[in-house]
Hints:
Layout: H1 2-15, E1 21-23, E2 28-32, E3 39-45, E4 48-51, H2 54-58, H3 64-80, E5 84-86, E6 102-110, E7 113-120, E8 126-128, H4 140-151, H5 156-165, H6 172-190, E9 200-210, E10 213-222, E11 228-234, H7 243-253, E12 259-261, H8 266-276, E13 286-288, H9 300-316, H10 325-337, H11 348-351, E14 354-356, H12 361-378
Parallel strand pairs: 5-14, 9-12, 12-13
Antiparallel strand pairs: 1-2, 2-3, 3-4, 6-7, 7-8, 9-10, 10-11
Amino acid sequence: MQEINLRESKGEIIARQFGWIKRLDEHSYKVHSQSGNFEYDVMSTEIGWFCSCADAMYRGTKCKHIFAVELSFILRKIVAKEPINIQPVSVKNCPSCNSENIVKHGVRHNQSGDIQRWSCKNCEKWFTINLGFEKMKATPQAITGAMQLYFTGESFRNVQKFLKLQGVGVSHVAVYKWIDKYVKLMQDYLDKLTPQVSDTWRTDELYIKVKGNMKYLFAMMDDETRFWIAQQVADNKGTSDVRPMFKEARERMGKKPKTLISDGATNFAEANTKEWRTMKVTTRTEHIRDIRFDGTVHNNKMERMNGEVRDREKVMRGLKRKDTPILKGYQIFHNYIREHEGLNGKTPAEACGITVEGDNKWLTIIQNARYLNVINEEN
């Protein structure tokens, strides 16, 4: 028993060393040796763990390398379950002298609105913080308000008319450019976060018009949290290759589901087989294709999300291009902004452990995304 505890403690030391355990796939690992500059092979098999070290091969014992892999797996699950809290970015330091001794110093007025002005008591300089909205004529409140109006169902021209009533004179084209700019910024930031979705996913397609031509929007959603995982626009319903969406979903979530629910379209079955197939039968994704409205297996959650997109698309009267930012923007709105009655007033992101704080969630996400870019630029 004492020898087992010793191996387990040594395994814990290995597991906590950065880069000593390399995960090759779901069942194979490379573990660095404590005594030399080489690695051991550790694999999970149907009869248990296997290691290429002498202890495991010749003595038949559970070696420290196996203990290390088991512990690293536990640590990954603990880290994965930690909630993510996106806080509003607050002003704390003077950009000139980095002092925290700053106070509010009136408001700067411009033609599109007011911006808070700050002064530093150390260097006596004043400054404004407009993180994420640098060189924008409109205020953050006007821009994020326009995005909220648009994704809740208003047209670009109606948003323009509303802004005009608020004293913000912009064209409907400017509103589109705001959405194009900030959707890309938010998407790059949010794609770095991993929501904790369930093991059952749903997928379906919805026909849309792009430049007057019939296209199909394929989407994948988590069953439990209704988190919109991935999307793809394709030309045909049952013959288009949707493997890119399946690949994106697996990479984005860091796993594949145990169960996939879809209709009987053959391209879903082909993508599941070719993109998610594993050698072990026990780890393959079960694909449920027998969908009936009068039975226990149905796809009504997916159809509800399709209805959301359909309501948005009716106002737009079709899309201008396949890679439009509107669809990605609506995906962000669906996941992080829109509260769902089916989730007791939570957003899908909140149900997945990602909370966006602040009254203006658009502003919180944009400023955090821009703040991360500034840090990367400085480094």
